[in-house]
Design brief:
This protein is an alpha/beta fold. The chain contains eight helices and nine strands. The strands form two sheets. It has a seven-stranded mixed beta sheet with strand order 3-6-2-7-1-9-8, sandwiched between helices. The chain has a two-stranded antiparallel ribbon with strand order 4-5. The chain is globular, with a radius of gyration of 16 Å.
């Protein structure tokens, strides 16, 4: 059963060494992520599952799977949790690397960790089914859900400025802050793709996992410092 969830953005810039001189711009987001992980620890889960965006389908990453930020110009390695497991799906993708860094930064040792990625093309019903399966894996399950909102919030954004981005992101922030699973499930998949929203599928996995629970939500952070929407929320 799902007992808690933390929702965090997943840009490599979350890691100060990657952001370099721009690192202070995301200090508030990092602090909010730490607070959200604190909610997970307080729930005393039996298992933590990290859910992030992937290429296609569903790919599993066991505890200890390694990842490296060398592709972003930084000699920094991470592992998903404290284990030394081999990666069935290869090294961690960028979204799970950001999660691994957050867990390392906060000293996570409260429960075993595993990771999955869900592809951008995965439809909402399939995402919900994945979430229900995750919630059934242990008596007390917590999710760390990684993903960004639109990448079209400004002229300098990766997807350039799209007038639809701000209202779409506002609804995402409202739904995540209110633990509104129905609203997350109803997100427009095609519009999310056009707005380069990486978090749509992971958030819909969360909605499926939360079915039948009475979790409440809290919005801890919402901003778009680089023209990309970043949201942090906690469900408990």
């Amino acid at each position: 059963m799902l007992v808690a969830a933390a929702v965090c953005p997943c840009p490599p810039l979350l890691v100060p060494e990657v952001a370099a001189g721009a690192a202070p711009e995301l200090d508030a987001a990092r602090a909010a992520c730490a607070d959200a992980l604190g909610v997970l620890a307080a729930a005393r889960p039996d298992r933590l599952v990290v859910v992030g965006p992937g290429e296609d389908g569903v790919t599993a990453y066991p505890e200890g799977t390694p990842g490296s930020f060398r592709g972003f110009g930084v000699d920094k390695d991470v592992r998903l949790g404290p284990g030394e497991g081999a990666a069935a799906g290869g090294e961690l993708p960028y979204g799970l690397m950001a999660a691994a860094w957050l867990l390392e930064r906060t000293g996570w040792s409260d429960a075993p960790v595993e990771g999955i990625t869900v592809g951008e093309e995965l439809p909402a019903p399939r995402c919900a089914a994945v979430g229900r399966d995750l919630a059934a894996r242990a008596g007390r399950v917590a999710l760390l859900v990684m993903g960004d909102a639109s990448a079209c919030r400004s002229l300098k954004a990766p997807g350039y400025l799209d007038e639809r981005a701000a209202p779409f992101d506002a609804e995402i922030a409202r739904a995540l802050g209110a633990a509104d699973g129905a609203a997350l499930t109803a997100l427009d998949t095609e519009l999310a793709r056009e707005l380069k929203v990486s978090g749509r599928a992971p958030w819909q996995v969360l909605a499926g996992a939360a079915e039948g629970t009475a979790l409440g939500g809290a919005l801890l952070y919402e901003d778009a410092p680089y023209g990309v929407g970043y949201v942090v929320a906690a469900w408990s």
